[in-house]
Amino acid sequence: MKYPSKKILLIPAALTLCCIAAMQTHQHLATGTNITENKKINNSVPIYYIGEKSLTSYFSQSRELKELGNVHGRHILIVDGKHAKNIKLNSLRSFLKREILSGVPVIVVNGNTRIVKRLFKGQFYPTVIGGRTPDDKPIGRETIYGYINYPIDNKTLVTKVFISTDSSPGIILEAYKWALSNMPSTRVAIKSTAPYWKQICQLNYTTGDSWKPYGKLNIRTIYYKLYNDGSGKYDWYDVHVIQQSVPREEAWHSGWKTADMYTWVDADYYNSTYFLSKYSPTTTSGLKTC
User: Fold this and answer.
1) Which residues touch 144 (CB under 8 Å, ≥6 apart)?
2) Residue 58: pLDDT band with limits 50, 70, 90
3) CA 120 to centroid of chain Cα atoms
């Protein structure tokens, strides 16, 4: 995929969910196991939260932030989107920006995810713009939005985002695990004059439990940028889209299976000068993945 103008730093993204068709293999639906039950975990990284006190019920180490002051030490910040409406927006966004620039993962729950978007110029801010569930209902709004942003050298900023339209309690724990596994770590910068690819963005989306009883859809999109390409006209990006359909038969031992999956990529959604230069789809199908 290539984009004109060297001024483009990061790719804005919109997420239109692929179409999933479900089929029932038998009439009896087993009860199965609810894998998103509200279970407190012994979190190794402390949680600071703004808003709903019930967030403390998920974690063994958590502390409420009553003032938007400096928070020291390695931690993850969770913001209750509903409660955030009671805080002066500019003050809250300035605080979130400081936290993110310090390498802190920020997770907004209970909607109002806009408070963590567009904090930085040229920011990668994926957004769910549409889609339908397997029973042809609207996909719904974003209920949770995790955001991580950190530099790995003097010219590369890495952005990682977690999105879900699920409103069940278990999705908060899933977002925490995502944040824990993607927190910034010490990295060795590449020093080369030859062309090379480097990851700059990563998006994780999951439907969580919002598609019950049919199953789950997980999407990971990874963006790489080509450096030292010698071109003053184009910026080149390599985009990997990884999709996983988890039928309820696999997740909860019931009778629903994935019948079909369809994917659309709209390369010029934001700008008509963007275009898809080359693509090579690979598909793995079977009982576990497709």
Assistant:
1) 107, 108, 109, 110, 113, 162, 163, 164, 166, 171, 172, 175
2) confident
3) 17
Mean per-residue pLDDT of the chain: 78
How many CB atoms neighbour CB 7 within 10 A? 8
In the numeric block, the tokens 């994917």 are attached to: 263
Domain that holds residue 206: 2-187+200-262
Asked whether 40 and 57 are in contact (CB, 8 A), the reply is yes
Q: What is the dihedral angle through the alpha carbons of 44, 48, 54, 58, rounded to the nearest 10 degrees?
A: -10
In a domain, 193, yes or no: no
Q: What is the DSSP annotation of 70-131?
A: ---SS-EEEEEHHHHTTS-HHHHHHHHHHHHHTT--EEEESS-GGGGSS-STT----EEEE-
Which of 80-84, 124-128, 207-211, 280-284 has the weakest average pLDDT?
Answer: 280-284
Cα distance between residue 120 and residue 122, in whole Å: 6
Q: Measured between alpha carbons, how far is residue 152 from residues 25, 103, 137, 157 in Å?
A: 49, 11, 41, 6
- Which helix H or strand E contains 173, and what residues bound it? helix 170-182
Cβ atoms of 275 and 2 within 8 Å: the answer is yes
Residue appearing with tokens 């001024």: 7
Name the phi and psi angles at 64, rounded to 5.
Answer: -80, 135
User: How many separate domains does the chain show?
Assistant: 1
Confidence of residue 252 (pLDDT cuts 50, 70, 90): low
Segment 4-40, tens digit of pLDDT: 333 222 333 444 444 444 444 433 333 333 333 446 7
